[in-house]
Amino acid sequence: MSLAISPRARRAIKTLIIIILISLLLDFIRRLYNFSNLFGFFKPHSGILLTQRDILDAYNAGQVQNDTNVAPVIPRILHQVFHNWTDPDNPVITLPDDWEAARQSCMSLNPDWEYKLWTAKTSRDFIEDEFSWFLSTYDNYKFPIQRVDVIRYFALRHFGGIYIDLDNGCKESLEPITYFPAFTTDGGHGTLSNNIIGGQPGHPLFYLLTESLIAWNWNWILPYVIISYTSGQWFVTAMWERYHRLLSDGTVKGFDGVGWKPLNHILMDTRPGEPDPFVFWSQEHGGSWDNWDSPWFGWLGSHIYLVIEWVILGFQTAP
């Protein structure tokens, strides 16, 4: 016995299927648009882009002190992370010579700052003591660099201060930076960076970063994508853009307080040609988290517009 479907019911089913397919397509386009904007394809990153020279010149002229806050808002705390992946139980900390020199440059130029070097043990203890709800995720990250990424967000949420990767040194005092409630760095192309990031404790940006980690902890198969999108630069950029979407008239939706402002991303120009000079920081050798797919994505990031041209040309010449 077969069930007869009336023409009216068939039309309703077809209409429903079309509506579902259109909804899925629109959702895919929205997600693709948001993902593309992590790399600045369709619009520049939200917030206010400042060069390092602009910040130092404004500080020396007294403009930073007068135009942003009467007093610094970032605590004078310098955070760095060193997790000994080959011998995690060894309490002796031995850094590569260039990293040690970079570290000393920051300490000597900021002698009145508190200095925190987060080891594998102190990082885990801190998460266990202060954010026990996150400990299981922290322990079960697939790649050790993910733990290095996330400890900076929790440390800044709790203590505030400025986090600096060990392969970055200092060329000037960081005092002019302390007037910005929260900031990160920007290489001038692609996503924002998390190699140097800072702000005041309890800032909504750091809550967004830490409270979103579990939901964003997906297995994206490729190591570079897993690291970048669950805890690294892509993730930071997504949360940065989310903060600015939630920001309206000095409030951030879902967070207490008023007077919140667009955030500053500070240029650490790595574009080819004649990049804007570094003033506050220097760059040493890095790549401690590179995996087998890192060169592919590095090449893609450097030639993204060429790849887009190839794709467009391919569609134009397709039969």
TrEMBL record:
The lineage of its organism: Eukaryota, Fungi, Dikarya, Ascomycota, Pezizomycotina. It holds the Pfam family Gly_transf_sug. Keywords: Membrane, Transferase, Transmembrane, Transmembrane helix. PANTHER family: MANNOSYL PHOSPHORYLINOSITOL CERAMIDE SYNTHASE (PTHR32385), MANNOSYL PHOSPHORYLINOSITOL CERAMIDE SYNTHASE CSH1-RELATED (PTHR32385:SF20). Its main location: membrane. The keyword Membrane applies. One of its GO terms (biological process) is mannosyl-inositol phosphorylceramide biosynthetic process. This is Mannosyl phosphorylinositol ceramide synthase SUR1. The chain crosses the membrane at residues 12-33. SUPFAM superfamilies: Nucleotide-diphospho-sugar transferases. It is found in: Membrane. It comes from the Eukaryota.
